[in-house]
Amino acid sequence: MMNLNLLKLEIIELLEKHHKITTVADLLGLKQPTVTFHMKNLERDFGVKLFDARMGRIILTDAG
Question: What whole-number distance in Å separates Cα of residue 19 and Cα of residue 34?
Answer without folding.
Answer: 16
